[in-house]
Amino acid sequence: QQPSPFAKSLLFGYVAQFLYEGDSPLAERRAAALALDSTLLNELLGRVELRELLDAAVIDSTERELQRLAPDRKVRGMEGVADL
After folding, report:
1. Among 22, 25, 24, 30, which residue's Cα sits nearest to residue 55?
2. Which of 2, 19, 30, 64 would disulfide-bridge 69, Cβ 3.0–4.6 Å?
3. Cβ atoms of 75 and 84 closer than 8 Å
4. Residue ranges of the alpha helices (H) in 21-70?
């Protein structure tokens, strides 16, 4: 007759997510998306509506830092080479 307490909370969460999915502001959606773990974020970024959440300049900057191409992240000395 009635869902269990666990199922009730799942059902409410699903309905709320479905109804209010597009209503949240961009900054709130960006914060929620970036709070996910990296594997899940990689899977989700394939969706067109989530691609707009990340700033292209920030992506480029992060990519340069991770590849040690940014001026403040370049390898310095033998210890830096060992770390790399």
Report:
1. 30
2. 64
3. yes
4. 26-34, 38-44, 48-51, 56-66
Share of the chain above pLDDT 90, in %: 0
Instruction: Please answer whether residues 68 and 84 qualify as being in contact, where contact means their C-beta atoms are separated by less than 8 angstroms.
Output: yes
User: Please, which pLDDT band fits residue 41 given cuts at 50, 70 and 90?
Assistant: low
Q: Per the structure block, which two tokens stand in for 46? A: 């394939």
At 3, phi and psi to the nearest 5? -70, 155
Please report where in the chains the tokens 């109804």 appear, as a residue: 19
Q: Is-contact 44 36, C-beta < 8 A?
A: yes
Token pair of 42, please? 């990689």
Determine the Cα–Cα distance for residues 4 and 16; give it in Å rounded to an integer: 18
Give Cα 68 distance to the centre of its chain: 22
